[in-house]
Design a protein that fits this description.
Elements (H helix, E strand, L loop, with lengths): L3 H17 L2 H9 L2 H14 L4 H25 L3 H9 L1 H32 L4 H18 L2 H12 L4 H8 L4 H8 L7 H14 L2 H13 L7 H28 L1 H4 L8 H8 L5 H35 L13 H19 L4 H29 L9 H27 L3
Helix pairs in contact: 2-8, 2-12, 2-13, 2-16, 3-11, 3-13, 3-18, 4-11, 4-12, 4-13, 4-18, 5-6, 5-16, 5-18, 6-7, 6-16, 6-17, 6-18, 7-17, 8-16, 9-13, 11-18, 11-19, 12-16, 16-17, 18-19
């Protein structure tokens, strides 16, 4: 018979797990952002299920990268930019942060464009959508703590699971999926371009900076490593489940009726993959998924930019600080968000921009993953350092992922995407 004495440790463990979990799940939900969803939709529309296997292969790759990231943060108590500055010098740190800012700027524009596209589904002009979204996010971040912002962002992010429902209702045919899984046209530059886009949509520079900074802002340490690994693994599965669901939905609808169709707007994607739900319900379900993806990613990317620059420049950078105590941190966050909103309100081609941004992320992988791997070898104490067979395995993953991302991106871009 259980007593209060025997149940107390179990209850404590449950509370501890809930307190620690969050950064891994949040960064993974942000990974399936508006640009990633559009890339997956374009992949399914143009190539059916031929890129589905890649989504599954990337689950362990994504976990390995982000597990090393959180290990560096929890064990060293330093952000990614800080560690690069300490180990390799300020010049290399600024180079790394420069690649981060390029990735963040592209990501912010694609997230806000995704929300503008959702607004257009309901007849709301882009400028009004931007005013509302920017104002709400600024209010949330300027007045909330890290934990409150994390909880709100995760709730928004879970709306992405709406795409799993959409994929199920699209009624994909299992024999067709199985047949196309083995049809891999690696000699086709257009296929390689979308391979690179999918690599860049899953492994993004800002994810590494964000998770390493987030575990510190949440005051986690090395004792939380086990739970943080589980948090990250769950997130890796969920984010790729959403990517696969979007690809399956467009593969079962657009590709089946308009093979090799090219999508140009968010509205086209929504109208193409949700007709079996009815116009009103379809728009609401699609809007929920896209909004959840875009909101959580916007918050995460803007925070990453502010944290990343702060780690190299040395200014105060915590959501636990009042805006008057950390003006540069809140200022950079706000400038990134507002500038993105202004640019989107002026009008951009979301689909083309989103795919191009993901390809750009793939081209940046050698720098991003290279620094991560070197830090795993040099910055960690012996019990946590990359070594032995696992170090060779991680090194192989880094070389293959970064190398193939650059090769596929350049080949596809030279051939015209």
């Amino acid at each position: 018979m259980l007593t209060a004495e025997t149940t107390r440790p179990r209850a404590f463990r449950a509370r501890h797990w809930l307190a620690v979990m969050g950064p891994g799940l949040l960064v993974m939900l942000a990974d399936t952002d508006a640009g990633s969803i559009i890339t997956a939709a374009q992949s399914g529309a143009q190539w059916g299920y031929k890129l589905l296997a890649l989504q599954l292969i990337l689950i362990p790759v994504l976990y390995v990268v982000q597990e090393l990231t959180l290990r560096l943060g929890l064990v060293t108590g330093r952000g990614h930019g800080e560690l690069i500055r300490e180990r390799f010098g300020r010049g290399w740190a600024w180079l790394s942060v420069s690649t981060l800012m390029v990735a963040c700027i592209g990501a912010i524009v694609t997230q806000l464009s995704g929300m503008a596209g959702v607004g257009a589904l309901f007849g709301v002009p882009a400028w009004l959508t931007m005013v509302v979204v920017v104002a709400l996010i600024l209010t949330m971040v300027w007045t909330g703590s890290y934990r409150s912002i994390e909880r709100i962002a995760i709730v928004f992010g879970l709306f992405e699971l709406a795409f799993v429902f959409v994929a199920w209702r699209a009624a994909p045919q299992a024999p067709q999926i199985a047949a196309e899984l083995t049809q891999i046209p690696l000699a086709n530059p257009k296929y390689l371009y979308l391979v690179a886009a999918n690599l860049g949509a899953v492994i993004m520079p800002w994810m590494i900076f964000y998770q390493q900074s987030a575990v510190l802002d949440k005051h986690l340490d090395v004792s939380d490593l086990k739970v943080s690994r589980i948090d990250t693994a769950i997130g890796a599965v969920i984010t790729q489940l959403v990517m696969a669901a979007v690809l399956i939905a467009t593969g079962a609808t657009i590709h089946r009726t308009q093979a090799n169709a090219s999508l140009n707007t968010v509205e086209q994607i929504a109208h193409a993959i949700t007709p079996f739900l009815g116009d009103a319900v379809g728009r609401v379900v699609f809007a929920a998924g896209m909004t959840g993806a875009a909101v959580v990613a916007t918050i995460v990317v803007c925070l990453t930019a502010a944290w990343g620059v702060g780690e190299v420049a040395g200014y105060k950078r915590s959501l636990e600080d009042h805006p008057l105590e950390a003006p540069w941190f809140y200022g950079i966050f706000s400038v990134c968000l507002i500038a993105g909103g202004v640019l989107v309100a002026s009008g951009v081609n979301l689909v083309n921009l989103s795919v191009a941004v993901e390809v750009m992320n793939a081209l940046l992988l050698p720098i991003v993953l290279g620094f991560l791997y070197l830090l795993g070898l040099k910055a960690l104490p012996d019990p946590y350092r990359l070594k032995g067979v696992y170090a060779w395995l991680v090194g192989a993953i880094v070389v293959v992922t970064a190398g193939f991302g650059v090769y596929a991106g350049l080949t596809g871009a030279i051939a015209g995407g």
